[in-house]
Amino acid sequence: MNSELNIRSKRKDQHVKHALSQKIDGDSDFNHVHLIHQSLPAVNLDTVNLNACFGEFEFQSPIYINAMTGGSEWTKSINRKLAEVAAAVKIPMAVGSMHAAIKDDSVIDSFKIVREKNPDGIIFANVGADVSPADACYAVELLQADGLQIHINAPQELIMPEGDRDFKNWRENIIETKKAVKVPVIVKEVGFGMSKETIQTLVQAGIKYIDVSGKGGTNFAEIENRRRFGQDMNFLFNWGQSTVVSLIESKPFQNDSFILASGGVTSPLDAVKSIALGANAVGISKAVLEKIQTDGVEGTVRYIEQFIVHMKKISVMVSAENIQQLQKTPVVLSAEIESWKRQRNL
Ligand SMILES: Cc1cc2nc3c(=O)[nH]c(=O)nc-3n(C[C@H](O)[C@H](O)[C@H](O)COP(=O)(O)O)c2cc1C
């Protein structure tokens, strides 16, 4: 194993280890969003259909396993299990950053296992915004991926001592990559959320699929800080916009793009609230990772099946029969979120 690969593999294992031990504390912004209970639902549970059809995608359920693993022996085994779950419950799945596989053939199988275990499923490749269009095409080809996620993670890079320091070319590279790949491109954050300015820039760059991946769940400021061994940057622990705030920031662009929500989604109620704020589908990382570790493939399959049933039950309680109706269901926001909305002219 070459030394760069060794660093990447170790880093990925550390990310998983730290993410698993990370305590998510504080008040989730999902608690600041209220759905309205309807006492006379106009729908029955078995007529609720939560198929998510948007743009070029058709998901049987509006949730997906978001990018996490691959690039080491340990994360190969996690990818295998996640792919078995995704295949069983028929939800899309993204792999973690494929930089390691692009640089070194010896870890390709830690990503390819996902396609092997889920030959007919929807799978997303994942690269960073600095990866060349040719390498991004290669990543897609390796998995016969149905979509390409490009992650944008400037705070994470800046906190990592070994991280990137140059960001000016990301926008241009994303545009060139979108032109080069033959599958839909999803630009995603990694848990710091997005602003309306970022979303506008992406929409103007021709990006149709945007995963706001907000603050409130996995916290890479904290994870990278723990990896810095004493060079403390913990003043950044609260950096970014929550998923709720990011979805509100995305409002002006929800007709011109397909917004996806992730970041701190831990319950079916969080997922339904995300859709009520305009998301087309909802990504989950940490909660699924934890489940796989504690309850294995079968337990995680049950967890996701229940998650979807519970989303349907909540749909009944707000009297919505499908995603389109859920997206229109009214919400009431706390004074704090309402103040953000006002100050940002949203
Ligand atoms: C262990 C771990 C590794 C991750 N690696 C990647 C990655 O390689 N690429 C990426 O785009 N996002 C990565 N993420 C970020 C997730 O895709 C997601 O945006 C973020 O964790 C917020 O979702 P959560 O709160 O449900 O975990 C990773 C998350 C975790 C927990």
Automatic annotation (TrEMBL):
CDD domains: IDI-2_FMN. It is found in: Cytoplasm. It catalyses: isopentenyl diphosphate = dimethylallyl diphosphate. The keyword NADP applies. Substrate binds at residues 11-12, 97-99, 156. Its cofactor is Mg(2+); FMN; NADPH. Gene3D superfamilies: Aldolase class I. Its EC number is 5.3.3.2. The keyword Metal-binding applies. Mg(2+) binds at residue 157. It is an enzyme of class 5 (isomerase). SUPFAM superfamilies: FMN-linked oxidoreductases. One of its GO terms (molecular function) is isopentenyl-diphosphate delta-isomerase activity. Residues 169-329 form the FMN-dependent dehydrogenase domain. It comes from the Bacteria. FMN binds at residues 67-69, 97, 126, 188, 213, 218, 285-286. InterPro entries: Aldolase_TIM (IPR013785), FMN-dep_DH (IPR000262), IPdP_isomerase (IPR011179). Involved in the biosynthesis of isoprenoids. Catalyzes the 1,3-allylic rearrangement of the homoallylic substrate isopentenyl (IPP) to its allylic isomer, dimethylallyl diphosphate (DMAPP). Homooctamer. Dimer of tetramers. This is Isopentenyl-diphosphate delta-isomerase.
